[in-house]
Amino acid sequence: MNARIRFAISVIILGLLMTGPFVITALLIWAGAKAPERAMLVQLIAPHLSLGAMMTTFGFVLGLLVIRYLFRQYVQGLLKMAECLRLMLTANRDFRVLPEGPPEVRQLAEATNDLAQQRDGLMDDVDIQIAAAKASVEEEKNRLAALMSELAQAVVVCNLDGRILLYNSRARLQFRALAQGSTTGTGGALIGLGRSIFSILERNQIDHALEVVHQRLQKGAGAAIANFITTARGGQLLRVQMVPVLSIADDSPENDISGYVLTVENITRSLEQESRRDQVLQSLTDGSRGSLANIRVAVGNLMDYPDMEAAVRERFVGIVSDEVVRMSQRLDQTMNEFADSLKTRWPLEDVLGIDIIAAAQRRIEEQLGLPSKTEEIDDALWLRAESFSLVFSICGLAFRLLEHYQIKELRFRLQPFGKLAYLDIIWAGHAMSSETFYTWETEPMQVGSEHSPLSLRDVIDRHGGEVWYQRDKAAHCAFFRLVLPVAIPETLAAAEASDESQLRPEYYDFDLFDFRDQSIDLDRPLADLSYTVFDTETTGLEPAAGDEIIQIGAVRIVNSRMLRQENFNELVDPERLLRPEGIRIHGITDDMVRGQPSIDAVLPAFHDFCNDTVLVAHNAAFDMRFLQLKEERTGIVFSQPVLDTLLLSAVLHANQDSHQLEKIAERLGISIESRHNALGDALATSEVFLKMLPLLEQMGISTLRQALEASQKTYFARVKY
């Protein structure tokens, strides 16, 4: 029974108590009076009956107003203060009660704020001591996460149920590249904390590898490692190595496995290259066998019959000549066709071109004392290169220029040209002859006292590139132009890691070692569930009238922790023009959504992203209505439970004036970075939801079923779209 119902009942009872004695007295007098006396009473009272009734009514209304005022000032004010106190105790330490209302209530609010201030001082001291105790542990965790993030191999750590509890950047990029179908290009991901590794790798092969590891541990093998090759769902071949994570608990049996570490390597390209090299050898072998046989026969006849006729001799010599020419042509054709495959014996990697130039500049200035600067640099250009040899080559050219021509400065220029990149090394000064450049190109390289057995031509050839010298008379300068391959699309995804380096220790959670079942059970505690917090931006506020989704943003919550980097953020082409009033709110224009994926492509990807999680949104009825209206068109149904932070706020803070996202965040001490942006709103909503969980627990709402039932009892649950 809420406060307003109690107030109404109290008013009725009070009214009865106020008027009851008078009514009873009048009835007793009337019952004891005789007929003449009753007539006299009627004559006395009748003229004043309307005035008495009016005065009675006025007094009753005045009493109600006084009681209502007292209720709002004292009862409702104290209830609101109680909600604020719970906020201070749990979600927002910095929240303070606003002193308002009667003097007594204001004094209570001020005393409460003073106590909160004292409590904060004590908690700060405790926090400092706890932080000092945890610092070393957290440092070790962050070191491990940073180390894993920087490894060149894809590394994934799983518990025995196959739930991912750690992965590095290389694994994130590699598995994203393996994504097929709806996930490709729409922000979906195959990998994430708490997700199952079996969505990527075959369960049977993992189980078999675990069995092999168990057997080797039981036999006391020094290295209990299992290796296997598997096929990803996109058809790529993966080489996987499994190493067990042994339990260190005192009560666990020896060699008890609590999880495993997987190192994954995509060997599809290397196998393709080996296959092409085999084709080269096969082509040369098969094509040359017949020619060599013909040459052997012709030479044998020439040697066995030195006195043969001139015409016959000339015919045999012609056979030898023709077969030699044919073999030469076949060799040239094979080399041209398979040149790239033959050059792949050098390990090349994807590297930012600007990093190559920066490394060369640093070495040139430190070792040679030669100033350098850059011009026209495409800082987003990725090269396929072996960085050490390439930097040494650039420094070798700089050393020769300084030694022979005493140049004063070097300049670098880097620009794309289709699938190639032009790296220019520019200087002002003397011209160079073609003979000198040929000598520099073919001789072993040198930088000061350092020597290399390789020549510039060796390095360029092994990169599958080219180099030349060019004079720019108009600019009074000359330059060497190195033509190098640009990173191909499959490996270009590594560029995404550049903006994630500052957040690299995020994707690990060692508590997930004991995190088993993730199925959505209504009677499971809220803290044990995984969530997808999402938001949409739309063309308008009327989904049934034809408004469309133009952006979906979402972020995952696993183990009561928001995973900022495991997010979904996709613009959607609504296939209609946007409204000007909407553009002013969300800032998304027609040009931004034109050519983006349609809702038919985005919804399946979002469904994959939020699979097996509880959906969370603010004013979820609005967003879910848009998704429901697309079920018939896309065949995508979001059937999981949905929690609404608007309704949960009404459950937690029934006496607060507003339940808008900004107001809730302000009460909970959360700053919203980006409003009316789908991903920004999803991040803010997830922070609000995480702050609400302990408040719900205090109210006795600890399971998903209880949260859903409490939400449906609020007034806002009646709103329909």
Describe the secondary-structure layout:
Layout (H helix, E strand, L loop, with lengths): L2 H30 L2 H11 L3 H41 L13 H48 L3 E6 L4 E4 L1 H10 L24 H16 L7 E6 L5 E10 L10 E10 L1 H37 L5 H28 L1 H4 L6 E4 H16 L3 E6 L4 E4 L1 H19 L4 E8 L2 E8 L6 H9 L1 E4 L2 E6 H7 L3 E7 L4 E9 L3 H4 L38 E8 L10 E10 L2 E11 L8 H7 L3 H4 L5 H11 L4 E4 L2 H10 L1 H4 L7 E3 H8 L8 H7 L10 H21 L5 H9 L9
Parallel strand pairs: 7-9, 15-18, 18-19
Antiparallel strand pairs: 1-2, 1-5, 3-4, 4-5, 6-8, 9-10, 10-14, 11-12, 13-14, 15-16, 16-17
Helix pairs in contact: 1-3, 3-4, 7-8, 10-11, 20-22, 20-23
Radius of gyration (Å): 40 Å
How helix-rich are the residues, as a percent range?
40-55%
The largest sheet has its strands arranged as 2-1-5-4-3
Distance linking N and C termini: 29 Å
Tally of strands: 19
Biggest β-sheet description: 5 strands, antiparallel
What oligomerization state is this entry in? Answer: single chain
Shape: elongated
Alpha-beta content class: alpha+beta
Q: How much of the sequence is in beta strands? A: 15-25%
Overall pLDDT metric: 79
Helical segment tally? 23
Explained architecture:
It is an enzyme of class 2 (transferase). Residues 530-698 form the Exonuclease domain. It catalyses: DNA(n) + a 2'-deoxyribonucleoside 5'-triphosphate = DNA(n+1) + diphosphate. The protein is of the alpha+beta class and 721 residues long. The protein starts with a helix and ends in a 9-residue tail after the last helix.
